[in-house]
Fold this sequence. Notes:
By secondary structure, the chain is of the alpha/beta class. The protein has 15 helices and 20 strands. It has helices at residues 16-27, 45-48, 80-93, 182-194, 218-226, 228-251, 257-274, 278-284, 301-304, 364-370, 401-422, 431-445, 449-452, 477-486, 497-504; strands at 7-12, 33-36, 100-101, 106-112, 117-122, 125-135, 157-160, 174-178, 197-201, 208-209, 296-297, 310-313, 317-321, 324-327, 332-334, 337-340, 355-357, 387-389, 426-429, 492-495. Keywords: Oxidoreductase.
Amino acid sequence: MNSSTQFxxxxxxxxxxxxxxxxxxxxxxxxxxxxxEREDDLGGTWHVNRYPGLAVDIxxxxxxxxxxxxxxxxxxxxxxTELKRYAEHVADKYDLRRHMRFGSAVTGAQWDDDAHVWTxxxxxxxxxxxRYLLTATGFxxxxxxxxxxxxxxxxxxxxxxxxxxxxxxxxxxxAAIIGTGATAVQLIPEVAREAAALTVYQRTxxxxxxxxxxxxxxxxxxxxxxxxxTQRFARAVSDGLLEGIMVSAVLHYRQAxxxxxxxxxxxxxxxxxxxxxxxxxxxxxxxxxxxxxxPTFSNSYYRTFTRDxxxxxxxxxxxxxxxxxxxADGRKTEVDTLILATGFSLWDANFPAIEIxxxxxxxxxKWWRDNRFQAYEGVAVPQFPNFLTLASPYSYSxxxxxxxxxxxxxxxxxxxxxxxxxxxDVFEVTEDANTRFLDRMTDNLDDSxxxxxxxxxxxxxxxxxxxxxxxxxxxxxxxAFKEAAAFPLTDYRITSAEATERVSS
Length: 505
Ligand code: NAP
């Protein structure tokens, strides 16, 4: 490494993705790491989101690192606070805090092809240099504010779910929630219990299936702690169910259409058991196929709409006024608190979350938009040497983020292991390997509900501005792990910076 380069690697983001990358790099012998985090603490999503009802909706035995099982989850689907504590535990156990710098918003990064280093710019601080750059900025990290007329004139409190005000007291107030995504599904039952009146503004209904949740008794927690194989077994069952039902029904729609239709039928049947009113049921029933948009799990969501103090509004909003919300039919609903469960901007603001300039001035965001969103194995991009983008097109594997993280850790291990054995320190994926991967993902998507099913009315963030479903990796998770551990090393150009510098001088 050039003696003036400050760090072996800079990792952007101290959530589970960034911490996984740091653990992988530590295992590979890199200790001079800097993890930059714009928030004031670690945990990513689980630090930022604190809204009432926050919980995982993938079973906790699956939604955690396989190499760091937590035997003490209190429920099958742990509440958000436990995820935040788990993140802290991982940071402590793997001694990661020493690498972290909080309140450090990265504004951009540029590759210097002569010095073979990345220069990373930080808001309000001096830039830093590193041999390797890894962005672990998450998928759902740039909140989306709805572009609704007059929203700035609203006199009461406006809250996005990612900026929850812990001091807010909704008791006796008139609340409105805009949005019916997975966040709203968790939040709506909680707000309905507190507020005097709640109006939920739904633009697109969501598929909801029952959440098979329950407390995990102490005796089982102790069993998991004493005999880890029992928890590994529980994880295998949970992974298998997720893969078999969800991933197959969505990604292998062509082959598993019946499974997909069965999941939709189960959701419809569930709705029937929860809501008697036909017209309410009709409003809550999606008109697109199961899986076009991320389905969600809740035992209380549907039933909440049968409460006297809750209204489901499906007429579109035309404007917000100081004291309420006006819909297209001219009706105004008076509101004290406006809650925005309007989700995240992925394709405009998040890919990439910061400006990244590679070789020959290639701007990653511009290149993705002018060409197609793409990343070899969901981690690498041609003309971006020594850069791994961990929140990328085609990187999200399975429905648990931990599958994605761990397959990326395996990829890093193979790649850096090969460099180490060759005495090399510069890598760049080849154009050819990248194109082959993109072509294969595009072909595979042809089997998915996204292209085979009926998704046009789903308004799903799985689709980008070009109409491509370029977020999920359309393969089995087993395939993602297999390729991460065995991709052809010839897919990368692996060189030594020192040798290159000697040749060119
Ligand atoms: P989301 O799924 O993108 O939902 C946003 C909602 O806001 C949608 O119903 C959307 O309607 C609505 N909306 C946005 N702009 C609007 C506008 N201008 N007017 C009216 N409605 C508008 O976001 P999310 O609910 O925050 O969930 C995002 C993802 O986070 C989930 O899919 C899931 O992956 C993850 N999540 C996970 C958990 C967990 O437990 N693990 C919990 C919560 C969230 P349209 O659909 O019509 O656009």
